[in-house]
Amino acid sequence: MNARDLNFPALPAYTADWYAVRFEPMRGTGEAFTCAILLRDAVGVEVRQVIRDDILAALFGQYAGHVQRMIDVVLDSLRAFAVDHDPAQWAPPLTGFWLSERRRGASHAERAGIYRQAIQLSAAFAQLDYAPQEQDEQPALEAARTFIGRVRDRVRSVRADLEVYFQRQARIVPNGSLVQFGFLMPTRAAHFEVLRPSTLSTSVRFARGKLYELKKARPLVPLERAALIVGVPHRDDLGFSERQHAAIERELGELRQEAQEDDTEVLAAVNDPEAAQHIIDIST
Q1: Can you spell out the DSSP letters for the chain?
Q2: 225-234, pLDDT tens digit by residue?
Q3: 43: exposed, middle or buried (Cβ count in 10 Å: 0-12, 13-18, 19+)
Q4: Most CB contacts within 10 A, which of 69, 144, 203, 250?
Q5: Cβ 233 vs Cβ 247: under 8 Å
Q6: What's phi and psi for 82, nearest 5 deg?
Q7: How many CA atoms lie within 13 A of 182 on its CB side?
Q8: Residue 227 to residue 281: CA distance in whole angstroms
Q9: Hey, which residues does 104 pair with through a beta bridge?
Q10: How many CB atoms lie within 10 A of CB 280?
Q11: Are the beta carbons of 187 and 221 closer than 8 angstroms?
């Protein structure tokens, strides 16, 4: 069989350019996040804030309102400029903000689909109300909650003294909102996530958000050890194809690389006993 015999689906007719609006609250730290997305198509330009209100509150506490006003000023400036000019030429009115490189997407869902792509690719803490709810978001959340429950039961059976440390809360910034961790001791913390092919992109986005929470908690709690425990299928699990296993391994490797920069561990577990053992090891 040659290439011309293959029937590939047609690409979507709708295309658009998009840019991420990045914000680094403390210059020079490298700790930046996407606060908005600019979309430009044949109809015109639209700028939407995507950072969630609860994330702003968690990150900045009593100063969240001030940060929101800064974002408002910057986005108003960008909207006015991009109507008649190339967005890449925009000069932000406040320091700490910048526009990412231009990216192009195509989607059958038109603008909603492009926003979804942009959010998945650049915004771990996005407000997804701006795009159709991911069909796999709720299953991904349920999978993680179920995983935590099973691990908690397993740990209780061998180390009952550790059960009290599951699902505890802490602040990750001074005066910020409380953030719930899957497991939290005075100097040790862990989050949980599950990587499965059916919810992979959403679970990876959630995992990155949890790594960020562990990173921010490290100096404030303070933490001597932090880990993201990831449930993954066994390589011998015939319920998944080689391609699906490879995709999970690739995403797991990227998460480990990102976490390593912040001295955070990413520990894979193919079953509940292995995940429970990770918790026991972390606690000692």
Answers
A1: --GGG--PPPPPS-EEEEEEEEE-SSTTS---EEEEEEEE-SS-EEEEE-B-HHHHHHHHGGGHHHHHHHHHHHHHHHHHHHTTS-GGG---SSTTEEE---EEEE-TTHHHHHHHHHHHHH-TTB-GGGSPPPTTHHHHHHHHHHHHHHHHHHHHHH-GGGGGGEEEEEESSTT--EEEEEEE-SSEEEEEEE--GGGHHHHHHHHHHHHHHHHHHHHHTT-SEEEEEEE---TT-TTS-HHHHHHHHHHHHHHHHHHHTTT-EEEEESSHHHHHHHHHHHH-
A2: 999 999 999 9
A3: exposed
A4: 203
A5: no
A6: -75, -15
A7: 30
A8: 11
A9: 17
A10: 13
A11: yes
In 3D space, the residue among 196, 183, 280, 261 whose CA is nearest the CA of residue 230 turns out to be 196
Of residues 163, 233, 246, the one with CA closest to residue 254:
246
* Interatomic CA distance for residues 189 and 107, integer angstroms: 40
CATH topology for the 137-283 domain: Rossmann fold (3.40.50)
Please give the mean pLDDT across all residues of the chain. Answer: 88
- Chain centroid to CA 272: 24
**Pairing state between β 103-106 and 15-23:** antiparallel
The rounded distance, in Å, linking the Cα atoms of 82 and 13 is 24
pLDDT digits (tens, 9 = 90+) for 38-62: 999 988 899 999 887 778 888 888 8
Predicted TM-score (pTM) of this structure: 0.58
Closest residue by Cα to residue 160 from 28, 26, 280: 280
Comparing C-alpha atoms, which of 66, 250, 282, 263 is closest to residue 155?
282
Query: Taking the alpha carbons of 253, 17, 85, 50 in that order, is the dihedral positive or negative?
Result: negative
